[in-house]
């Protein structure tokens, strides 16, 4: 499944799932544009190290996904966008009546509206090239819900709906749009939560993982960033050319319940 000669733009990709997806796309031969809202030396070093490791062109472009103009400028600065992976996201947990408006607005902007802006900017490039793949990183929470995550659940449901619309508008072209819906994925952010969760519930870390963090994930195993990345590579391959407008759950059986 070679993606040689293609350029992939991955939002929110200097760590976690986004970085894992970027690495798998680079491994498959795609040139990569990494992104986050920071513009640090280590961000550009990350790109340089990936370029050396995989032998493809890797650039880092800073852009704030909470701002529509930044989202569109990211695609324009990339210069080409054969593959767009909308991954950027944040989270906040709170009851609806206490949910801070500023947090709601930020989550909707970064998790959902950014996908509209980047897709709107990327589709003309894909149409001109005669080929394109849009992969939206949604969530199990794009298909189901949990209490106290109102903004995140609303945004991810919105991403799934927008995925379907994008697929329908490009159905007669060699452009597809699909959403990956991960459950809990093993990332440094999740790793950092494990000790505090264990302490809170007076459990061992192993018990906290199985009984609290992975409570709704029947496999009782985290998905890995490599598995999410591999799914993205598949969706960009010729084997998936007739897969569009759908979701692929990588959630250990969560949404089968």
Automatic annotation (TrEMBL):
<dbReference type="GO" id="GO:0003858">
    <property type="term" value="F:3-hydroxybutyrate dehydrogenase activity"/>
</dbReference>
<dbReference type="InterPro" id="IPR011294">
    <property type="entry name" value="3-OHbutyrate_DH"/>
</dbReference>
<keyword id="KW-0560">Oxidoreductase</keyword>
<dbReference type="InterPro" id="IPR036291">
    <property type="entry name" value="NAD(P)-bd_dom_sf"/>
</dbReference>
<dbReference type="InterPro" id="IPR002347">
    <property type="entry name" value="SDR_fam"/>
</dbReference>
<comment type="similarity">
    <text>Belongs to the short-chain dehydrogenases/reductases (SDR) family.</text>
</comment>
<dbReference type="Pfam" id="PF13561">
    <property type="entry name" value="adh_short_C2"/>
</dbReference>
<dbReference type="InterPro" id="IPR020904">
    <property type="entry name" value="Sc_DH/Rdtase_CS"/>
</dbReference>
<dbReference type="InterPro" id="IPR050259">
    <property type="entry name" value="SDR"/>
</dbReference>
<protein>
    <submittedName>
        <fullName>3-hydroxybutyrate dehydrogenase</fullName>
        <ecNumber>1.1.1.30</ecNumber>
    </submittedName>
</protein>
């Amino acid at each position: 499944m070679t993606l040689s000669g293609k350029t992939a733009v991955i939002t929110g990709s200097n760590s976690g799932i986004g970085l894992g997806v970027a690495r798998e796309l680079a491994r498959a031969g795609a040139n990569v544009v990494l992104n986050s809202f920071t513009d640090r030396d280590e961000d550009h070093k990350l790109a340089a190290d990936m370029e050396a490791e995989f032998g493809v062109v890797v650039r880092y472009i800073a852009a704030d996904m909470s701002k529509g103009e930044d989202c569109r400028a990211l695609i324009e600065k990339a210069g080409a966008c054969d593959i767009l992976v909308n991954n950027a996201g944040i989270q906040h947990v709170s009851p609806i009546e206490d949910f801070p408006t500023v947090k709601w607005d930020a989550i909707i902007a970064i998790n959902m509206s950014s996908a509209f802006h980047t897709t709107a900017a990327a589709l003309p490039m894909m149409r001109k090239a005669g080929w394109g793949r849009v992969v939206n990183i949604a969530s199990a929470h794009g298909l189901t819900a949990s209490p106290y995550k109102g903004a995140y659940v609303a945004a991810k449901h919105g991403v799934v709906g927008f995925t379907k619309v994008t697929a329908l508008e490009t159905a007669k072209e060699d452009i597809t749009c699909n959403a990956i819906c991960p459950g809990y994925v093993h990332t440094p952010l999740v790793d950092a939560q494990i000790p505090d969760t264990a302490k809170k519930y007076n459990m061992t870390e192993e018990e906290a993982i199985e009984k609290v963090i992975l409570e709704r994930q029947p496999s009782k195993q985290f998905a890995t960033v490599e598995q999410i990345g591999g799914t993205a590579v598949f969706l960009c391959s010729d084997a998936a050319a007739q897969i569009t407008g759908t979701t692929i759950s990588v959630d250990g059986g969560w949404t089968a319940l």
